[in-house]
């Protein structure tokens, strides 16, 4: 019977068993397409050795969790030993034991920060245009909008690095909070820093721990490494502006609060020169309340005669330093024949009430021909006039006379 003389329809079901077919007698070319149903092939019945070349695929370097990649050779794949995905979906690059969703381990031997040597991680923009950003965004499952960002801006003049935050999640990034420009200047609140640190806003420094006790130091570049400015703070000096020399913690110049009562002090060459306290101004480290200068003022006052005699006033001025009052008076006493004792009223400050009258005034000029004594009467604002025998002087003695006197007295 010739080949192909019996069709499959002419073969009784189960008429041909595997014992009736000698080994290696049926070639693949003798089988019609789809003639053998896979359900008819017993498990493990076809081994790799029975498959023709080109049907088999080989995986080199295979192991648990390794990512499989192409090799460039037909039917051959590679298991990448340096890229894994573990059972927790952590991706490891350079490590077989990733502990984070993306865990990169690298030994790139980067010994210089500047230059063209590559780092372990790179983000590249493959469509460069000046002014575009290459960015890393941060978000969360509740919003697909970027909520924070680190981005490099590529320009024709160099690269800027910016850090952004969000004040409203629905609007994405709302603040370009910090920028480092092409010169390395840092801008906070500004995208165009013109200095090494350019801040647009309020700067607050909290709880520093510096051995020098200073909160903020600006160093000079001289050979002695002098401080230019130090905002100084320690147990006895708080909220101060200081200039210091070398590494000493004691300022050579200081202007700021000192002591438990928050007084304001001024120092030069390491020595306190003045201090403003609750009692006034003290000098050279003296903090005694009794020694404090508590007032300084200048002004004019109105002088009158105690008996109602009219006066023409040319000058009536004072200077008060602490409790010392200096006056300058120039007057013309109207014509009169009053024999009562002359007395002038209206000192600008009450005289100190001591056991005797305070201060004395020198008669500098008069056309009366007299040489009387003028003094502040204790506990009041009156000026007494007496002879050198301590007797009163009649008002008529200065009738139509000019007199000028000056001097000092102690105020209460």
If you had to describe this structure to a student in words, what would you say it looks like?
The chain contains no helices and 27 strands. By secondary structure, it is mainly β. The chain has 4 domains: 60-104, no CATH class; 133-199, no CATH class; 214-291, no CATH class; 297-410, Immunoglobulin-like (Sandwich), CATH 2.60.40. A 9-stranded antiparallel beta sheet has the order 19-21-22-27-24-25-26-23-20, with no helix packed on it. The model has no long low-confidence stretch (mean pLDDT 83).
CATH domain fold name of the largest domain: Immunoglobulin-like
Strand order of the largest sheet: 19-21-22-27-24-25-26-23-20
Characterize the main sheet: 9 strands, antiparallel
Mean pLDDT: 83
Shape: rod-shaped
What is the percentage of strand-forming residues? 35-45%
- The tally of helices reads 0
Query: How far is it from the N-terminal to the C-terminal residue, by CA?
Result: 151 Å
* CATH-scheme architecture of the largest domain: Sandwich
